[in-house]
């Protein structure tokens, strides 16, 4: 078979035991939690970093988003191509070790460019995590549990954000933002070793399967041609990218919004618990948003698997409706006069905002041949993170500076209106998910 010709079938993967599957999913969940902890801890640290290093909001956006995302998205595809043929657990282990080391280095940064370089290193390391992890999970679990399994892994997104916000705020209050980076990066070394020594590569279970993959790889051109023909892939990829733009764009500036608009109230609330404002806000946003996000991610997978078995369109209808309802919830929250009611109203918003993870990633894994699943995950993440993580924080930061300066609103109102504009983009995401109802049944492969 020519290198660029896609096979009509795929070799059978030997399944792992149910007990081992549970263990592996837990290890991968913890790794992905560390992935997002190290990626998102910078958000609660943005204000003290801004003050110490004298940064503008667009520089915060560059540091939290674009610097990380460029290398994360670009390197994800070649690493995924490697994962189609090589040992996926070892690739994941090496990635964990790399991003953890660079997270620690963030704590030693002396200026904006030091931070940019360290964040680039975090992005390089994290590029090797999710594509091989999605591919592994899809091999580990039966089809009817795929969305739930990937949703379980995706719980790492809100869980890592929860731990990052809470831990980052508390440690920064007590020891400074530099120590917070060091604490965030340390656990990755342990789990890099655990992944390397205990995660099983299913392809090793069948020598014939491994030989077939090595002798007849699907070229990147053929893989891309398959994806180009899948309308569902592009609709859900763009919809998810907009959701990521909103989520990543709001993340570093939601905390800034509370610091700038509810300064006295935060200080008073924090004092009641013996905390400083950053610690209290990080703990509040982390616990409330993270817990809601965990529930939302889990619920999205359950809905997709339960109702998708009867009507496959449930995989896109659920995130479509969640995207639409989330818009007024967020706008209402940041326009409430008090910090406490605003935080409470953000809970359903974070739940709805995480509901798309399982359905979207499971759809991507189900519309292609098993031999190109890691590549598909990497292309999907390339789109999501280049638009979402790369442009989201930078875009919201630029809007905040525009509203605050040239439009004369001041920094407090500037960040509020930047967040409102970003939230309204959820309507576009709804439309794309809703459109995918027409194509998803025809595009399903496995």
Automatic annotation (TrEMBL):
InterPro entries: MFS, MFS_dom, MFS_spinster-like, MFS_trans_sf. It is a multi-pass membrane protein. It is found in: Membrane. One of its GO terms (cellular component) is membrane. Keywords: Membrane, Transmembrane, Transmembrane helix, Transport. Residues 24-438 form the Major facilitator superfamily (MFS) profile domain. Gene3D superfamilies: MFS general substrate transporter like domains (1.20.1250.20). One of its GO terms (molecular function) is transmembrane transporter activity. CDD domains: MFS_spinster_like (cd17328). Signal peptide: none annotated. The chain crosses the membrane at residues 20-37, 58-79, 91-109, 150-171, 177-200, 233-259, 279-300, 312-333, 339-362, 374-394, 414-434. This is Major facilitator superfamily MFS_1. It comes from Caulobacter segnis (strain ATCC 21756 / DSM 7131 / JCM 7823 / NBRC 15250 / LMG 17158 / TK0059).
């Amino acid at each position: 078979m020519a290198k660029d010709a896609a096979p009509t079938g795929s070799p059978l993967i030997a399944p792992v035991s149910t007990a081992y599957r549970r263990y592996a999913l837990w290890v991968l969940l913890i790794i992905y939690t560390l992935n997002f902890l190290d990626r998102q801890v910078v958000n609660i640290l943005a204000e003290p970093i801004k003050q110490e290093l004298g940064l503008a909001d667009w520089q915060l956006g560059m540091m939290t988003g674009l610097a990380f995302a460029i290398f994360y998205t670009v390197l994800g595809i070649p690493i995924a191509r490697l994962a189609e043929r090589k040992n996926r657990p070892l690739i994941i282990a090496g990635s964990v070790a790399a991003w953890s080391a660079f997270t620690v280095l963030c704590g030693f940064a002396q200026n904006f460019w030091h931070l940019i370089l360290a964040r680039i290193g975090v992005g390089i390391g994290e590029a090797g995590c999710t594509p091989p992890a999605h591919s592994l999970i899809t091999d580990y679990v039966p089809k009817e549990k795929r969305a739930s399994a990937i949703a379980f892994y995706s719980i790492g997104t809100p869980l890592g954000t929860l731990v990052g916000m809470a831990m980052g705020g508390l440690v920064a209050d007590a020891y400074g933002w530099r120590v917070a980076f060091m604490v965030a990066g340390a656990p990755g070394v342990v789990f890099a070793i655990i992944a390397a020594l205990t995660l099983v590569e299913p392809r090793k279970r069948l020598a014939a399967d491994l030989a077939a993959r090595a002798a007849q790889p699907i070229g990147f051109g053929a893989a891309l041609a398959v994806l180009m023909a899948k309308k569902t892939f592009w609709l859900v990829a763009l919809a998810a990218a907009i959701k990521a733009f909103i989520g990543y764009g709001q993340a570093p500036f939601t905390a800034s919004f509370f610091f700038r608009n509810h300064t006295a109230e935060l200080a008073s609330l924090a004092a009641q618990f013996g905390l400083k404002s950053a610690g209290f806000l990080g703990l509040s946003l982390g616990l409330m948003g993270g817990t809601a996000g965990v529930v939302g991610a889990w619920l999205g997978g359950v809905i997709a698997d339960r109702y998708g078995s009867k009507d496959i369109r449930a995989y896109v209808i659920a995130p479509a409706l969640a995207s639409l309802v989330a818009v007024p919830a967020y706008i209402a929250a940041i326009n409430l006069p008090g910090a406490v009611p605003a935080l409470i109203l953000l809970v359903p918003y974070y739940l709805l905002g995480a509901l798309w993870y399982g359905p979207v990633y499971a759809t991507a894994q189900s519309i292609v041949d098993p031999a190109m699943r890691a590549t598909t995950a990497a292309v999907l993440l390339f789109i999501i993170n280049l638009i979402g993580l790369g442009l989201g924080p930078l875009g919201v930061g630029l809007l905040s500076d525009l509203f605050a300066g040239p439009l004369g609103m001041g920094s407090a109102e500037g960040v509020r209106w930047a967040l409102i504009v970003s939230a309204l983009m959820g309507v576009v995401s709804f439309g794309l998910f809703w459109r995918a109802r027409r194509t998803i049944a025809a595009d399903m492969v496995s």
